[in-house]
Amino acid sequence: MKPDLPPTLALLLRYLVLAYLAGSVLFTIHFFFLQYRGSQPTPSVKPRTMTEQGQATFDVENIMYSQQIMKWKTSENYPEHEIEEDAVLHKVFSNTMQPSKVLPYYFKAIRDFDPESVTITTLITFDRYPIFSKLVTNYQGPISVSIHINDDENRDENLSKLHDMYEANPYMREFVDVHVVVDKFDRQFNMWRNVARFFARSNYFMMLDVDFHICTNLQRHLSLDAEARQVMQSGAAVVLPAFEYVEQDDGIDSATFPKNKESLIRLVQEKKVTTFHDFFPKGHNATDYEQWYNTNSVYKVMAYQHSYEPYVILKKEGTPWCDERFVGYGANKAACLFEIYISGIDYWVLPQDFVIHQSHPYKEETRKQERKYNRKLYQNFQEEACFRYASTFMRARQWDKPKSENLKQQCNKIRGFKAVMAQFAAASGVQGSA
Ligand SMILES: *[C@@H]1O[C@H](CO)[C@@H](O)[C@H](O)[C@H]1NC(C)=O
Ligand SMILES: *[C@@H]1O[C@H](CO)[C@@H](O)[C@H](O)[C@H]1NC(C)=O
Q: Which end of the chain has the smaller Cβ count within 10 Å, N or C?
């Protein structure tokens, strides 16, 4: 016999059952809704497939997802915490066009590098793979390269070409770290430069365009030349003079290039080789080639001006980064070197080493518009950088120190700069004038 419940209690039970049913239906709907949302692009984060060193560190299918974690350690007893790589990189490259996905160490070289060695940092696009491979074979030292892959229907095909390139040359897995940038923006040169430098694994980096051939044994010369090494260690920029062949055809095969300064000077005297882009002297003439031909020791660049764009070795820490607002051809490297110079970093020229351009036809169409835009941007940038660094130096009480000299020399060319800084100095009670 079923015991009779009092009617109110029975009613209550019925309501409870109903409420339970309604609740579980809602819960199920909610659950499926979340599942559905989870299958939409954003949340579901897939791990990179970690493979052996020297292999791709993730598979193409999961390209937009990463679960790399940056660990944040604090001294001893404080808890360690973690920040996702994506969050870190989003801040690191927050001045670039977004969305942009940086994949650090897409390939990582198996070697450990000497912290005192020079990492070549460079950028390549898909048409430069062959010349890059030559650079790798020639240098046989650490290289950190940024490769841009367009986020379009060719993405996977282009990535697989990258794999082919990496696997085709055994020196790649010895020396080359590849960082891939996947987005829809062509020619974010300064961002790509920063990517290559950021992930470089030694204390010095050289900003080199991929089509330049380092003709000499740079690493050996640096190890022998104590004075040059000291200049480098002090944080100065070290310049490798740049040359090119007069006849394009002579400049195609780097195997035929001179291997020391004597042979180079002979070719210059025979007028077969000339200083790089001598139709635009301001790009390189501050290197003072006449002095270079006649010296055996490192010397300081005395005639820097804002169009100077030599190939330099720099210290990784403490050197300003390339401004990422420069996208496309024109002024991007000059702007980078300008900021470095006015930040108080001097340029010095290495006596034995040099680079020669390997000829190739230029595509000029897209370049023209971009150059025009960047020229304008560069004018504004110089003014802004001058005021930014000047006020930093003032506040840091360095306005009357040698560190400010490069800035004063360059920025006093800007109309009104000297007067404004004098007022600023007076108002903040800082010694010294511009
Ligand atoms: C991708 O591949 C296509 C077709 O092979 C090529 O035209 C294009 O330049 C490549 N793009 C990039 C960014 O590598
Ligand atoms: C570099 O070239 C420019 C333009 O021809 C010239 O005005 C300048 O004096 C040259 N500088 C040096 C250091 O030779």
A: N
